[in-house]
Design goal:
- The protein is 49% helix and 6% strand.
- It has 14 helices and five strands.
- The chain has a five-stranded mixed sheet with strand order 1-2-3-4-5.
- The longest helix is centred in the last third of the chain and has 23 residues.
Length: 346
């Protein structure tokens, strides 16, 4: 008798006998999500960024009057100027906050730094209608940015490079003025990108939104099938699970089915997700050995990272006993698993 052509409908014997074919089939169906990204609510388009830059340019008289007070006046006019200043330094919000705390002497922790940066990106005021402490923090961040941009690169030891050693800050305000007046040579811009990655900051900002693609797909399928479920919140813990899965069916108190939905675009992240799913599989078996109520484990994964190591997909197929799905096959999730017993199509 021929083995099932689809791993999620195969018996355990068929899965074991045809594991390599099933691995190939699953990898061939994986998609990549790294070229197209969701913008998110706080994405800043270039014209908007350029507008804030022009305000800073005008307030500082083309950087000839570049001081904390002139820069702060620009931030007063447009909060996004704070982000422009930070980007000019090449630092992240927590990094600039750390220096402001240590050097300017105004405590600005990471959460405050990120919150102010986000408010600036979304066009909310950070100097008017806020508490005196918030104004003090913004002033400290602006002062620290101006100080860094003005000072240039200090001497560092052989074999090291300073973060300000870039085309617009290498010689302090002199470099910045030259660049502002003369434009950026394209090779220099490409080199800056080589040192970083285009869209790196935005990729970090929306990484969770990208990962939510799979969770949203599972949610839509469960709802359209009339299946009662519990969506686990971040950092929730349950009995012997040190990390809660993404979904319980029918609920978190007596789960008959556990679903993990994970996306990974690199092999390191994929390996971490595989380990997490294997851990759930071990918990499933431990409960069976204790004759405790156990659960069926279903995984929905996608992304380039899972296709890099064949062994990772093999581990997932074994851990889920074939109940492994991608975005390409998720339409089968409610009829090819134990979910069909909970399905009440609307």
């Amino acid at each position: 008798m021929a083995a099932s052509s689809r791993h999620f409908e195969a018996t355990e014997e068929e899965l074991e006998a045809n594991i390599d074919r099933y691995v190939d089939d699953f990898i061939n169906g994986l998609q990549s999500f790294f070229l197209v990204m969701p913008k998110g609510a706080d994405f800043v388009e270039f014209p908007r960024f350029q507008s804030a830059y022009r305000i800073l340019e005008r307030q500082t008289r083309n950087f000839s009057d570049f001081s904390s007070s002139s820069a702060l006046a620009a931030v007063q006019q447009d909060p996004l100027v704070l982000v422009v200043l930070r980007v000019m330094t090449g630092l992240s919000p927590p990094e600039l906050a750390h220096l402001a705390t240590a050097i300017v002497g105004v405590p600005v922790d990471q959460s405050n730094a990120r919150r102010l940066d986000k408010r600036a990106r979304t066009g909310h005021s950070i100097l008017t209608g806020v508490t005196p402490l918030t104004r003090q923090r913004v002033s400290a961040l602006v002062s620290m940015a101006v100080r860094l941009l003005d000072q240039g690169v200090p001497l560092v030891g052989e074999g090291a490079i300073h973060r300000l050693d870039k085309i617009d800050t290498q010689r302090g305000i002199e470099s910045l003025r030259e660049l502002a007046l003369g434009g950026v040579p394209y090779p220099a811009l490409l080199y800056e990108r080589f040192l970083g990655r285009p869209f790196a900051t935005h990729r970090d900002t929306i990484s969770e939104q990208v990962g939510d693609l799979l969770e949203e797909a599972v949610t839509v399928k469960l709802q359209s099938s009339g299946i009662t479920y519990y969506k686990v919140g971040r950092a929730e813990r349950f009995e012997d699970m040190d990390q809660g899965p993404d979904f319980f069916v029918p609920d978190q108190f007596h789960p008959a089915i556990v679903i993990e939905a994970k996306l990974a675009e690199d092999d390191g992240t994929a390996r971490d997700k595989v380990t997490r799913i294997q851990h759930l599989a071990e918990l499933r078996e431990q409960r069976k050995r204790r004759n405790d109520p156990s659960f069926e484990l279903i995984a929905c994964v996608d992304g380039r990272g899972f296709g890099i190591r064949r062994e990772d997909v093999k581990k997932l197929l074994i851990a889920t006993k074939g109940k492994l799905f991608s975005l390409q096959t998720i339409d089968n999730i409610s009829q090819s698993t134990g979910l069909r017993g909970f399905s009440h199509p609307l």
